[in-house]
Design brief:
The protein has helices spanning 24-35, 47-66, 72-80, 105-118, 134-138, 172-184, 200-203, 205-216, 222-232, 239-246, 248-261, 272-279, 327-334, 366-373, 403-415, 431-447, 453-464, 470-477, 479-493, 502-510, and strands at residues 17-20, 40-43, 82-85, 96-99, 124-127, 147-152, 161-166, 188-193, 315-319, 338-342, 350-353, 356-360, 378-381, 392-397, 419-422. It has 516 residues and is of the alpha/beta class.
Length: 516
């Protein structure tokens, strides 16, 4: 193994990097390593596959030259550093070998046995597996301490994140050196303990699951939900657009694999709606039809935003501290609405418009809040990433409320320049429940020692482009608000799926935040 003085340092540029499997991921990883001045030996069992891999790299680099991101000589020298081979013996002098072959435990174990016999004892062996346990992969190795997960995201040259996965036997210095190497290669590296879904594929599950459930329950349509997640949440894509892009076969199988790996924990329950898409062959963009149609001339599906215009209220009262939604006060004042702020003791904050009360959703049905506060004219509004700029917001009305509630609520938000999406009365609406569940999952991963708070957030920003790390977002909303929302969701649905992580519960009682 490497000496301790080298343990936190990247592998030297003189280190030859072997990449096994010249498919989608292997070709991308070879390009990343060659781009960082390493000599790369790209091995695949089939000549055709290596050739295809090289062409894939070459055309990708060509596009970069066209966009002015790379010069032609740079492109050529990256390509010159990649040596395509079809004999495994060519990997004998490598200092790091990354395998990106078919996702099959037995086949990967067989390959690792061959590599152990072939490579020097200080050669680090890495696997790009997305779902197999690093601990299980290493089980039959003579030196399991030298195996580490190096989980790139597709497309590897573009996506910033690399999850560095330690199995039960992985030597810490191996994980540190691979982390430093990935960083040197321009990647955002995070450490994770080998566990189902690692960080990203675990923490991201609720992003899809809650959307699927909300639509399954008929609370809104796919286009409205996607628009809310993009425009109110600041995510680059809505969950339905993203699932169509990933492919429902892949997305559904990742969910099933995480669900099974966690012994059918209801938190990861797969969706029957998504299964129906898979069963019918509606796999998303690649099959021309998923939630949306991608056929030539298909109509673009957009949210139905045609609400009548209602008068803006002349004045509103704000009782208590609206917390994360406070910027709405400033926005109302800027819209010429007179705002009176009043204290309220021990009760939840709300906005009052005449007889109407507006609350930030807390994971309960609006109907339940109307019943418990004995105030029928009640509406709830959703979380927004930034209430000072958000152009869209979801609201729901208590079944007990009257027409005036509807008109006053819509009138207020219209005056603020916010497009309202009216949802059926579901607990936690769209963003609050999604973000609460993402934060809960990230928190549980931290609680189980899978990753640090910082790495959980970094992984979700770098791996799936979230606008904010879920734990930083929880800090913004308030630990107790997130905890209460989950508790209420658990109560509303009567399901364990929404149970708060023990760490979140503890932090709620100690008044703690994730980040200082
Ligand atoms: P792929 O099917 O595009 O490529 C696999 C390549 O490995 C093929 O070229 C095949 O000829 C070669 N191969 C198979 N068995 C081999 C062996 N015994 N020796 C040498 N070459 C062999 O697969 P893809 O998508 O690149 O995935 C590879 C690995 O990366 C899998 O473990 C997968 O779970 C993981 N991964 C995939 C991601 C994706 O989005 N496709 C993302 C992150 C990880």
């Amino acid at each position: 193994m490497n000496s301790s003085s080298q343990q936190n340092q990247a592998l030297p540029k003189s280190c030859i990097v072997g990449v096994i499997g010249a498919g989608t991921m292997g070709a991308g990883i070879a390009q990343v390593a060659a781009n960082s001045a390493h000599t790369v030996i790209l091995f695949d069992q089939s000549q055709e596959a290596v050739q295809r891999g090289l062409e894939f790299i070459s055309s990708g680099l060509q596009r970069q030259v066209k966009r002015g991101k790379l010069t032609e000589p740079q492109r050529q020298s990256i390509l010159d550093r990649i040596r395509p081979v079809t004999e495994i013996d060519a990997l004998a002098d490598c200092g790091l070998v990354i395998e990106a072959i078919v996702e099959n435990l037995k086949i990967k174990q067989g390959l690792l046995a061959e590599l152990e016999a072939l490579c020097a004892s200080d050669c680090i062996l890495a696997s790009n597996t997305s779902s197999i346990s690093i601990t299980a992969l290493a089980a039959q190795m003579s030196h399991p301490e030298r195996l580490v997960g190096m989980h790139f995201f597709n497309p590897a040259p573009v996506m910033k994140l690399v999850e560095v996965i330690s199995g039960i036997a992985t030597a810490p210095q191996v994980a540190h050196q691979v982390h430093a190497t990935a960083t040197e290669w321009g990647k955002l590296a995070v450490h994770a303990k080998s566990s189902p879904g690692f960080i990203v594929n675990r923490v991201a599950r609720p992003f899809y699951a809650e959307a699927l459930r909300i639509v399954e329950e008929g609370a809104t349509d796919i286009a409205t939900l996607d628009a809310l997640v993009r425009e109110a949440g600041g995510f680059r894509m809505g969950p339905f657009e993203l699932m169509d892009l990933i492919g429902h076969d892949i997305n559904y199988s990742v969910t099933c694999s995480v669900f099974e790996a966690y012994y059918q924990d209801p938190r990861f329950l797969p969706s029957l709606l998504q299964k129906a898409l898979v069963d019918s062959g509606r796999l998303g963009r690649k099959s021309g039809q998923g939630f949306y149609s991608y056929a030539d001339g298909a109509e673009t599906v957009t949210p139905d935003d045609n609400l009548p215009s209602y008068a803006a209220p002349a004045s509103i009262k704000v009782y208590g501290d609206l917390g994360v939604a406070e910027p709405l006060i400033e926005r109302a004042a800027s819209a010429g609405i007179s705002v009176e702020c009043l204290p309220i003791d021990g009760q939840e904050a709300f906005i009052e418009i005449g007889t109407v009360r507006l609350f930030l959703t807390d994971g309960r049905f609006a109907a339940e809040r109307a019943a418990t506060t004995r105030h029928a004219n009640l509406a709830v509004f959703d979380l927004a990433r930034d209430y000072s700029t958000s152009k869209r917001l979801a609201v729901a009305f208590a079944d007990q409320s009257d027409d005036e509630t509807r008109q006053a609520t819509i009138g207020l938000f219209q005056a603020l320049g916010i497009t309202i999406s009216i949802l059926d009365d579901i607990p936690g609406l769209v963003l609050m429940r999604t973000v609460a569940m993402l934060a809960n999952e990230a928190c549980d991963a931290v609680n189980q020692g899978v990753c640090s708070v910082a790495d959980a957030d970094r992984a979700m920003i770098g791996g799936v482009n979230y606008p904010l790390g879920p734990l930083a977002w929880s800090d913004q909303i308030g630990t107790s608000s997130v905890f209460n929302c989950l508790n209420n969701l658990q109560q509303s649905y009567g399901e364990d799926r929404y149970r708060p992580s023990p760490l979140l519960r503890r932090m709620h009682f100690s008044g703690s935040r994730f980040h200082d």
